[in-house]
Each structure stands twice: as structure tokens, then as C-alpha cells.
């Protein structure tokens, strides 16, 4: 049985396949940092298509004069058990940028120490120990005036309620300062914010995106890459880069696609040459996985090198092992709220539905439905086309259908 990674492997090179065009394209957008031009990017694509792996590989390939930082919002969410704040994101960003400095820049140890000290003072877990005096000090800090900045740009900016101005100012100015501090040694800072759609669960995602916009506006050597499993037409994409969104279309949008039929075949040959397929078996395998590396890997891990897979055996194995093939969704399912699950199962049960039919199928109000539909749209689970709402992912559909048929109910 092959053992392919179900997450991002530590040994990036051993498992990474192709993506040459994607890497060249994204690199070319980042390369302008060398000339003091910072592009901001938005990378979308379905869950399991390979965004995170691609970006991690890309960061690893960037030359030494470009520093990189990577944060995964879903990890922050996981640690916080679902309740996330702007401060936490800022802290994670700072830690990631700082880590990058520590790894790549021996002679910037001084700046590293300063940052370390700051993180220690700012961390929420330490505020208790430091006493209320600390938070009072924060309160006295002059607030960064988003409203003012917005007026200058001719756009209305929503209020930020939280008292995290000092921290955010420091974090947002930090990468550009590092470049300036390096005396030409460092040309740029690339910062990846993965599963960024989860920012949508802050009280004011707009304000948070505006924060980035207002700083990046004045920084010539810092490129942010926001990436997440959300469709390019989701509400959260609109908030960050729509006409009325913070970046107002100035971000370069890039979509990561699944492997093509040929790439899928090439991948199997290169990474799991022990598996044998007939031509029709291969065709069926591609239909089952649709070229999503996540499914290719989890499916391959259930297969054996001792038999040859034809069309029928692929189908049989797929249904026998669907729990394992669709493993990605078990983890996601566990993070969904009851209402999100209700909407999804209603759509699994009935197929694509119009708004009014969907509303009739769930027992909550129009307003509540609107709220949760938006949330699962942001998560790239629900899509909306031709006035119908439907489940985006065929594997999620197959898995839930199977669970219902086998157990008589959907997974709790
Ligand atoms: N180019 C690739 N080569 C090999 N495996 C890949 C590639 N891209 C993704 N994978 C694998 O597919 C799975 C999903 O990839 P991931 O980057 O986590 O997807 P996403 O971030 O889009 O949800 C992971 O197990 C990863 O190892
Ligand atoms: Mg990912």
C-alpha cells in the first residue's frame, strides 16, 4: 500500500509534483519586490486542490533576499476553539515574521530580540501577570485613525472597536522596517495568510482588511498573499477585493486548479508507480478524484500494488473505502455548526435548491439562513449559480450520501 501524505509533508520536495506554471506565475508577481514594487495577491481554489502545498513550496524556493512568513488561520481557530480575535491574528503574524528573521538573518539578532520582547509584553496570556496597568497603557495610545485614512482615500471605512492599535501598527509596519533595516540585504517580505476566509468570522472583517490595505498602500517591499478554500465569487472575496472591498480589485487574483487528466496520470506514475491501472481504470480514477491531489492521495492510500485496477475495481474500492477517501471532510465536518450542517444535509437530500425551497427545507428564519449560507459559501462548501444553491464538492456529497444510506442518518 502506498503512503502518500494527507497533509503538507515536512519533506516538501519528496512529494511535490509539477505546478511549474503556477509557481512561475506567482513568482513573477513577487519578483517585483526586487524593484520596490509590492503586489498583493489573492489565491483561491477548492479545498484539497493544493493551495497550501503550492505556496509552501513557493516560499521555500524564494531567494535569500526575500523573507517569508506563513500563518494558517485554521490553526489559530483550532487553538482558540472557534473564537478568534484581531489581536490573535496579529500575534501569530508577528511570531511568523519573527521566526523568519531568526532563521534567515543572523545579523538581525538585535531586531529579533526587540521583537521577542514585544511579543512577550503583548501576549494576552501575560496581561494578567502584568496587571491592569498594562492595558491602561494601551488605552492611552493614540489610535490609528482608519476613518481619517479612509477619508483621504475617498472611501468610508468602518470602525474598529477593539483596542489593538499599538500591536497592529507595530506588526503592520514591521516587515517594511525589516527591509529598510537590512541595508539592501533584504529586498522584500512575502507573507502568506492561509484559510483567510476565516477572517470572515471576525466582527468586522472589512475593518481588518482595510488595515492591511492602508499599510500596504505605503509599503513598497511587502507582499501579502491571502489564500483560502473559498470560491472566487464568495462574499469574503468581495469584501477583500471586490469593487467596494478594501483592495477594490487591486489584488492580483489567482486560482489554483486541480490536476488535469494528464497531470493526474503523471503524478501516479512518478509517486506511486507500484499501482497498476488499466486504461479504463485510470479514467475512472480520474473521475473519482477529479484531479484533486487530496483525493488522489487518500484514494491511493487505500489501494494495493498486488492487483490491476480496472474500471469496476476502482468503483468498488472507492465505495468500500469512501470514509478514507473523503477523510478531509471528516475533519471539516467536525468544525461546522448545527445550522451549517442542516443547510448542507438539506441540499444533499434534495439536490440544488432555490432560496425559497432551501428556506422551506430548514427550520430557521430568512435572516438566519442568509447568515449561515454566507458562512458556508465562504468556506467553499456551498455555491450559487443560476439562482440555485448547491454543494460544491462531489466528494462531500458522496460521503454524506453514503453515511446516510449506511447509518440511516448524517454524521452528527
Ligand atoms: N503539487 C502537489 N504535489 C503532490 N501532492 C500535492 C500537491 N498539491 C497538493 N498535494 C497534496 O494534496 C493534499 C491537499 O493539498 P493542500 O495544499 O492542503 O490543499 P488546499 O490547501 O488547497 O486545501 C495534501 O495532502 C498535499 O500533500
Ligand atoms: Mg490549505
Automatic annotation (TrEMBL):
Lineage, top-rank taxon, reads: Archaea
Q: Which residues form a coiled coil?
A: 91-118
Q: Which Pfam families match?
A: ATPase_2 (PF01637)
SUPFAM superfamilies linked: P-loop containing nucleoside triphosphate hydrolases, Winged helix' DNA-binding domain
What are the protein's GO molecular function terms? ATP binding
Q: Is Coiled coil set as a keyword in this record?
A: yes
Keyword Endoplasmic reticulum among record annotations: no
What keywords sit in the KW lines? Coiled coil
The chain positions of domain ATPase read 16-298
* Record-given protein name: ATPase
